[in-house]
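Practice problem: Tetrapyrrole methylase
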Amino acid sequence: MRFCEVVRHLRAEDGCPWDRAQTHTSLKPYCIEEAAEVIGGINIWEATGDAENLKEELGDLMLQILLHAQIAEEEGLFTVREVMDGASEKMIRRHPHVFGKSMLSEQGEPVTDWDAIKKQEKAGKEWTEAYLPGALEEAEKLLERAKERKGIKK
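Answer key — structure tokens:
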């Protein structure tokens, strides 16, 4: 995939110093800002019928995802392919009515309800939900800083 190669080159020794210096932590503000700009792009499209800004902003958000995946690969955590494969498998599991592959309960019964599937997937990982409130608070602060950088008044 060309975009993955572009990101890999940006992070390479002969790439961009700014991109090479980024970490998961340093990219947090840009990730949340680009997500907000996608929402802006959707609003523009709804108001005007023009999807160009939405297309551009989706690319910028995708850049954030690919940068995080590239950094993770460099750190030996996972690859962009593993991210995409994991997301594909999750969507297949969560849509048995589309893909015909239901999960089985502990009793061997097919699980087809979205909430039940999600609950089964999260079994043993419930502790991760404790991080969400802090992440949302951090996202709010990052958005406030983004507004200040862009000169947006409250």
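Discussion: The radius of gyration is 19 Å. Students who identified this feature from the tokens alone can consider the problem solved.
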